[in-house]
Structure formats: structure tokens, C-alpha cells
Design goal:
By secondary structure, the protein is of the alpha/beta class. It folds into 2 domains: 137 residues, NAD(P)-binding Rossmann-like Domain (Rossmann fold); 170 residues, Dihydrodipicolinate Reductase, domain 2. Helix content is 37%, strand content 25%. The chain has a 9-stranded mixed β-sheet. It has a 6-stranded parallel β-sheet with strand order 3-2-1-4-5-6, sandwiched between helices. Helix 1 crosses helix 10, helix 4 runs parallel beside helix 5 and helix 9 packs across helix 11. The longest helix is centred in the last third of the chain and has 20 residues. It starts with a strand and ends in an 8-residue tail after the last strand.
Length: 333
């Protein structure tokens, strides 16, 4: 057995709890430090797993010398925190979105390359078993030529008191929050994105940011995608991702996933639905195995950079009310 990699968790908010569970469910990693500007929050998480609590990254690095870090603080803080870690030779898994704006994300990616360490973006849906199997079905060709990709992430959530609705911290509303997952999945299935159009819906929560939006995408291969995003409505669909081909359809669902070929009246169930904690664990294990050279990193820094680039174009589109081309730098398949 190899010694587990030592981890520092930066940020002790809600999403950190899922990472803590993942860290306790694998033998590849050990949480040694928790950092948060709120001492009581860091202490509560650290004590639960036998780690040490710190108020700053500098203190944690000096005391524990970790191999890797998970950064799950608000997006506006990502560049500063991640660059500090990367420059100390610490591998970083940063929660989505990687950054607000392409320039900030580029600085992070360039720092990782210069320092010879790994930088990846958290994107849990890529690690859902149903998603991996759906990708294999699409790649096999049994659905024929892919024509349309549809994704729905809608749920009624009161965002009035959460940092996600503060544009100075979050960079935007539901589009950057949930839509970052959507963009990553579109690129996973369809490859690089050519152009986007984002349309804001009616604001119901009195926020400074959009709480409902629709995103339209055309991939470089010519496939159309449509994404529904909302914090104010729940479409109550069994599936959250549907891919239509000339010879069939695949549906990735919350409780089961299935596909149907046009030549058959029957649906074939191929997976049992969304398992959030299993996805977080697989994401962490892929990161750990990539660090030691045992696996290929599933979400590369180039993927993360492209995701930020597409999202930046989406907000430009929303402001201008027309389609916006994504810069040709998004060439990673």
C-alpha cells in the first residue's frame, strides 16, 4: 500500500462537507488541515476528522507541508488562493468555476505549468457512473449521428442570503453556478464549442444576478445544445440530460438512465441514477492517481480553462442579446 497523499481543505462551507466525506472514503488521501477565515468553521470540520485547523494557507503549509489541496471557496478568491498553493508545489483541485474571467483562469493554468504541478477543476457530473456509461453509448455509434443535446438543472432554492447571488464574489448567477457544469458536459460529449447565446429569464428572487436562464450552444462539429438553468423553478424531470441521435436517444436521469434505439420499441436501462457522494469520491481518486502517475487526469487544466472561456462568452451574449463566437483557443476535445 502506498502512503496516502496529504491534503489541505481550503474553505469549510457547504460544498466542503462532500469533499470531507470523499476524503474519509478513500485510502488514497488523508486530510491533515482545514483552512477558513472563520476559525470556528475550520475547527468544526477539522475536529470531526482529526485534522488541524488554520486561519490562513500560509500557516497550514508551514505546519503540515501537504501534497495537495482542495479549494472550495467562492470563485472570486480562487486565483489568489490557488496560485499561492501552486507556487509552493501543491497540486490543486479547485471547485467550479475555476475563476471569474479568462484572464484569471489563464494565470492559474500558467502558474501550474510553470511550477510543474497539477491543476484541475471540480466537476462532479463527469464522474457520475451513468454519465461515463452514456458517453460510451454515444461513442459506440448506436444512436447514429448526434443531433441535439438537452440539459436541465433547475431547482427552487432561496438564494437571497447566499454568496452565490453576490456578483462581486460569484461572478454571476445561475448561469455561472450551474451552467459551468453544463458547459463541461457539453464539451465532454460534443467536443469544443463554437458559439453560444445566453438568455436571461424573469427574476423572481430580487437578486443582483440572474436566477433563471437558458443557454444555447453550437459545437464545432455542428451539434446544437440547449440548457435550462434556474434557482426559481423546478421542471421535475426524471432525466437531466438527453442526447438525441439519428438512430436513438439516451436519457441520463436522477434515479435511472436508459437508451432507446429507433429500431426498437424498448428502452434499455444501463445505470441506476445519480450518486453524488460516489461522484465526489471518484473525482478525488482520479486526482490522487493522476498526481502519482497511475491515471490520466479526466478534467485537465485546458478543459477548465475552456469552460471559463465559454462562460465568459455566454455572459457577453446575455448582455448583447445575440450569439457570440467562442475564441478559437477552445480546441481541447
Amino acid at each position: 500500500m502506498k502512503e496516502p497523499l496529504s491534503f489541505v481543505l481550503v474553505g469549510a462551507g457547504a460544498i466542503a462537507q462532500s469533499y470531507v466525506q470523499a476524503l474519509t472514503q478513500t485510502q488514497l488521501a488523508a486530510l491533515v488541515a482545514v483552512v477558513d477565515t472563520r476559525p470556528e468553521a475550520a475547527k468544526a470540520v477539522a475536529e470531526a476528522v482529526g485534522a488541524r485547523a488554520f486561519a490562513t494557507i500560509e500557516e497550514a503549509l508551514l505546519a503540515t507541508n501537504p501534497d495537495a489541496a482542495i479549494v472550495c471557496t467562492p470563485p472570486s478568491t480562487h486565483p489568489e488562493l490557488c496560485i499561492k498553493l501552486l507556487e509552493k508545489g501543491v497540486h490543486v483541485l479547485c471547485e467550479k468555476p475555476l475563476a471569474v474571467g479568462y484572464a484569471n483562469a489563464r494565470r492559474m493554468v500558467d502558474t501550474a505549468a510553470r511550477c510543474g504541478v497539477i491543476l484541475t477543476m471540480g466537476s462532479k457530473f463527469r464522474y457520475v457512473e451513468d454519465m461515463v456509461r452514456a458517453k460510451a453509448i454515444v461513442s459506440s455509434g448506436v444512436l447514429g449521428e448526434i443531433i441535439l443535446f438537452e440539459n436541465t438543472f433547475t431547482s427552487r432554492v432561496d438564494m437571497t442570503k447566499r454568496w452565490n447571488s453576490n456578483p462581486k464574489i460569484s461572478g454571476g448567477g445561475v448561469l455561472i453556478d450551474n451552467g459551468t457544469h453544463s458547459v463541461d458536459l457539453i464539451r465532454y460529449f460534443l467536443g469544443p464549442i463554437a458559439e453560444v447565446q445566453a438568455v436571461e429569464g424573469k427574476r423572481l428572487q430580487g437578486l443582483e444576478v440572474e436566477d433563471t436562464a437558458r443557454l444555447f450552444v453550437r459545437s464545432m462539429s455542428g451539434v446544437m445544445a440547449s440548457v435550462d438553468l434556474s434557482w426559481s423553478l423546478n421542471k421535475e424531470r426524471d432525466s437531466y440530460l438527453d442526447i438525441y441521435g439519428s438512430a436513438g436517444i439516451v436519457r441520463v436521469g436522477w434515479k435511472e438512465s436508459k437508451y432507446q434505439q429507433a429500431s426498437s420499441p424498448n428502452w434499455v436501462v444501463f445505470a441506476n441514477g445519480y450518486d453524488k457522494q460516489a461522484a465526489f469520491r471518484r473525482q478525488l481518486e482520479n486526482f490522487c492517481n493522476a498526481i502519482v502517475g497511475d491515471e490520466r487526469l479526466l478534467i485537465t487544466s485546458d478543459d477548465a480553462l475552456a469552460s471559463v472561456q465559454v462562460m465568459e462568452a455566454a455572459y457577453q451574449s446575455m448582455a448583447a442579446s445575440h450569439w457570440v463566437f467562442v475564441d478559437a483557443k477552445d480546441k481541447a476535445a
